[in-house]
From TrEMBL:
This is Uncharacterized protein. It comes from the Eukaryota. InterPro entries: Leu-rich_rpt (IPR001611), LRR_dom_sf (IPR032675). It comes from Scleropages formosus (Asian bonytongue). Pfam families: LRR_8.
Amino acid sequence: LSECKLISFPEGVFKVLRSVTEKIHVITLANNEMKALSSKFFTTFTQLRELNLEGNALNKLPDAVGGMENLKSINLARNKF
């Protein structure tokens, strides 16, 4: 979902992907216009190993990111931290 001009992660995606979230290990949301990610994102995709959020407008992450036990790599380059 890179370079899609997303301003947020679509809420409807959580319902659609509910049955397969445990099989999703990599998400790339690079080069969008996202200013925030909800806690629901991190509590839904619990099996993520890699998350690329490079090139957005993020200035903070929810505390729920700390519970991502399987997350090995997170790219936050070119954000507003």
